[in-house]
Amino acid sequence: MKDKAYYEDVNIKNELKLRDMIQKLPKFCMDFFIGIDADKSSRTKIAYAYDLQTFFEYMKSANPSLKKYDIRDYPISLLDQISPSDIEEYLFYLKYYEKDGVVHTNDERGIKRKLASLRTFYNFYFRKEFIDTNPASKVTLPKIHEKNIIRLDTDEVAQLLDEVESGDSLSKNQQRFHEKTKVRDLALMTLLLGTGIRVSECVGLDMDDVDFKNNGIKVHRKGGADVIVYFGDEVRDALLSYWEERSIITPAEGHANALFLSLQRKRISVRSVENLVKKYSRLVTTVKNITPHKLRSTYGTTLYQETGDIYLEYVTHYHEFDEDGRYMDDWVIWYNDPFSILPMIGRIFAGCHQLVVLEEYQTVYDLLSRIFELKFFIQEGENSEDAPEEDYIELSDSNIK
């Protein structure tokens, strides 16, 4: 029987974990998770369950009248009894608290996410008219202060790949393992830096997801879509070197098609890749905390600096090819239908959203400033009336190439 795809296996494990977590919440919460099931990923639902568990545990500890009841038995009417002030006190509590002897802290981003979870939770029951009030909507979201963007500079990227290949700066014990994994590690790091894919997407790759003929890999995105991500010659060379090594390895049962294997001949884990990135990046810089996510920031910024091409900026996030498979990198585009420009504008703004996720705020500002300089012209064809086939929109008079 064919092995399940990596993302299918992850989703099954997450769903089982979610069921266990729901059993620690009030019984009426089941309606909420059923209601969002079709729209949210398993990881997002787990995040909601964790945030709600934290909230109800706080309510039990902070309210003497609730301490005598099991959280599972809390009625839905409790939601109407909670005031905006109660939620604000909860957010204040989140900054520092202890649970089972472990200290937990939340900065403004963590607090904002937990408030956003509560808002979604309350909005669901308020829209369904199960409750009469919506106190979470009256609480102001905390202001997010900009953080310094952490990424590798161009020379640091080159040094990082050199360290992965040579292993000279590793400890004696690390060098012993490096001899066994250096080809795999170089392929993996080069792929992350050369495509900007997520670490979960990387470890989920199967051997039949790699297309050397067209220099592309099939990636299962976080939203559920399968997309083709294209790579350059440097990534191709590194992958081919590892491919020769991988082809002669006999994988452990259940991992036959996995591309990247651990020393135990099983699909490499997300945690292992995170540790791998940390190990090599520390040889290059001790002042930057480099994670796989920071490699994505490095990828996007490097491409933009080198090419100035907004479409290349989003190559890992969106389809940017026309029906004939040609790469759409020309900003002066003529359209038979004026309304056909809207999908392209939509992709631009969707791409800017992804850059915000990557905390590339300055890049988004620069790009949007340039986009709003565009001038649009609609011209009627010579032999047409009202709605001629020759109508077009031309994007011009801008500095965008």
Structural class: mainly alpha
- Proportion of strand residues: 5-15%
Report the total helices: 16
Tell me the Rg in angstroms. Answer: 25 Å
Main β-sheet, spatial strand arrangement: 3-4-5
Give a quick account of the main beta sheet: strands, pairing sense, barrel closure: 3 strands, antiparallel
Mean pLDDT: 79
Instruction: Give me the count of strands.
Output: 7
The gross shape turns out to be globular
Order of helices and strands: HHHHHHEEHHHHEEEHHHHHHEE
Helix content: 40-55%
What are the segments in which pLDDT stays under 50 over at least 5 consecutive residues? 303-339, 375-401
The rounded distance between the terminal residues' Cα atoms is 51 Å
Task: Describe, in plain words, how this protein is organized in 3D.
By secondary structure, the chain is mostly helical. It has a 3-stranded antiparallel β-sheet, with no helix packed on it. Strands 1-2 form a two-stranded antiparallel sheet. Strand 3 and strand 4 form a beta hairpin.
Q: Quick recap of the structure?
A:
The protein is mainly alpha-helical and 401 residues long.
Q: Which helices and strands, and how do they pair?
A:
Blueprint: H1 6-22, H2 29-35, H3 42-62, H4 64-67, H5 78-81, H6 84-94, E1 96-99, E2 102-105, H7 108-127, H8 154-166, H9 172-195, H10 199-203, E3 210-211, E4 216-220, E5 226-230, H11 233-246, H12 270-281, H13 292-307, H14 310-313, H15 341-357, H16 361-371, E6 375-379, E7 392-396
Antiparallel strand pairs: 1-2, 3-4, 4-5, 6-7
